[in-house]
Amino acid sequence: MNLPAALIPAYKPSEEVVNIAVRIIESGVFSAVYCVDDGSGPSYRRIFESLEEKGVRVLRHAVNLGKGMALRTGMNVILADIPDISGVVTLDADGQHLAPDVIETGRALHKEPDTLVLGCRSFGGKDIPLRSRLGNIITRRVFTVVSGMKITDTQTGLRGIPAKLIPALLRLKTTGYDFELDMLVCAREEYVPFKEIPIATVYENGNSCSSFNPLTDSLRIYFVFLRYLWVGLLSFAVDFTMFMALFNFMALPVTWANVCARGVSSTFNFLLNRKIVFKSRGNILKEYVKYFILMIYIITINTSVVYFTYNYVTKFAASVKLTAEIITFFVTFMVSRSFVFKDRIR
After folding, report:
1. How far apart are CA 215 and CA 220, in angstroms?
2. Using CA atoms, how far apart are residues 252 and 218, in angstroms rounded to an integer?
3. Number of independent structural domains in the chain
4. Which residues are 58's β-sheet partners?
5. Which of 2, 32, 92, 155 lies 20 to 30 Å from 10 when distance is taken between CA atoms?
6. In terms of domains, do 240 and 218 share one?
7. pLDDT tens profile 47-58
8. pLDDT tens digits, one per residue of 7-39
9. Which residues of 220-258 are buried (b: 16+ CB within 10 A; e: fewer)?
10. Within its chain, how far is the Cα of 10 from the centroid?
11. What is the CATH number of the domain that holds 34?
């Protein structure tokens, strides 16, 4: 198996990227170094020419297509050029990733070629820009709740990606910074374990060289979470529609309408969660028994909330049902993730 390749997605890069590339080439840890010019423009041509002179293979986008597209372009070419490669180490072009950390990530990946290696920064220093500190804290905590994976730095650009994961990554649709979060979700779905190694936290001039847009790129990142939870939202739609139909058109009592709607939507939710969200490989019968027990408990609590709210708070059935679902939605997801579908990647 060949040594890993290094890949640098670059949009208007720092000149320091040339020095870093030289050091990782000289380390002997990498079989090759690639860089993708993601439409940086003529004023940055000199930097890319310097990289080529040092032995870096430069690929070019005619226009800026986003970091995710640059990574996919680079990984596709690397996998075609070097089929027997152990993996690809990605690093940013703004000087945030120091050569020793890149080299250490390469060594870790080659030693464990079936593991996703994440170079994780510390965000405790007072020199860390506020937007970076807050962004990481919020994203990390939401990601832990949704996926069950406790990752210190969900937005790190320094990653050792095993070759076996790359084909799945090439099929992803995300094109910007959201691709890196999508990569973590994809690794979980492909049963690829991860390993964290500490790296230096470097921010030059308040991270002014970064092309990360705090508003638009953050929204795109959190849209990954929304897609990740779409099964739960779809199950809620089935549940809510059935409840309203049974209550308004078939005139069932509010509690019976809720129990019937929940019974149908729960089975629907179980099947989709097992296959699409958690991709469990456990015994389906054992999982369904556990899920059934969970649903009996949830339906009891949910129906109690519906009964109490309808009889003592408001007679508006839609708001009653909505209140009950908000209370039970995240409980169901968390217990399903940790108890029902536990036979999945850790």
Report:
1. 9
2. 45
3. 2
4. 35
5. 2
6. no
7. 999 999 999 999
8. 999 999 999 999 999 999 999 999 999 999 999
9. bbeebbeebeebbeebbeebbebbeebbeeeebebeebb
10. 21
11. 3.90.550.10
